[in-house]
Amino acid sequence: MSQHHEPLRKRRRFDDDEPRPRGRARIDLSALDERGGADPDGPPEGDRWSTWDGADHGPAPRPDWVVTDHAAVDTDLGALKSGKEADVGLLERAVPGTDRRALMAVKRYRTAEHRMFHRDAGYLEGRRVRRSRETRAMAHRTAFGRDLLAGQWAGAEFAALSRLWSDGVPVPYPVQCTGTELLMEFVGDADGTAAPRLAQCRPDRDELCDLWHQLVDALLGLARRGLAHGDLSAYNVLVHRGPDRSPRLVLIDLPQVVDVVTNPRGPEFLARDVARIGEWFTARGLPPEVGQPGTLLPELLVAAGAATSQPEW
Predict the structure, then answer these.
(1) Residues annotated as region Disordered (predicted)?
(2) What is the average pLDDT across 16-44?
(3) Whole-prediction pTM value?
């Protein structure tokens, strides 16, 4: 008696069924990755490999603390300051397995998707880019133009710091610039404590006079190169105390540095700088015989070669 077998029906496959592997089962290699899914191209520690290679570098001779090793690793250690145009943080660059490490301030300028620069027009007079398309994009504030502006501000600050540091003006050493990111000397203590701004300080009479003389020397250093800070106030000056506890004044935030002669508003910016910073010193009891903002401005204009165009302030 013959036996009849019903043909086997194929099981219908539904869309949510898991596909069955064909042939040998695949081995899950992720379990062998000791770094638990980390970026295979990233460093074994820290946030990224050093960006030294390919960046624009600061002037020579370089300070000994600058880490140039290609095997170095960068680690973000937190925010120091948040502004309208850029954010400043603390970054450590170190070579794993060695004692080579340095703290730096990292300044990242905001691009098209962030808030616009609120001070462009007056400061950018006299600055031009070569390509007419870029000039139009910046003028019309397109997304591309705003990205260009962010890069231009970073490049302008890097160039200003490089020039001024080489000339002995008290500014942070500019380590490198890449696009809209600027790395520079961290002005503060080895434990990451940033130096206070001048606005936070309460100097006694002797320290006030010392800081005033340091400020005058710094502003004269700018003026002899035909420059003004452009946005000077007690918030853009740091006061760092070294091992001997004596105060050292450092100028910061220089992306808008102004050419006093070629910029039509240059003398006006210089006068405003002197008025703002002078008001802080006089309000804290700067003796008139030590210094007066009213006599400082003509001196700076002469040094800058713009004495004939002194504005009324």
Answers:
(1) 1-62
(2) 56
(3) 0.78
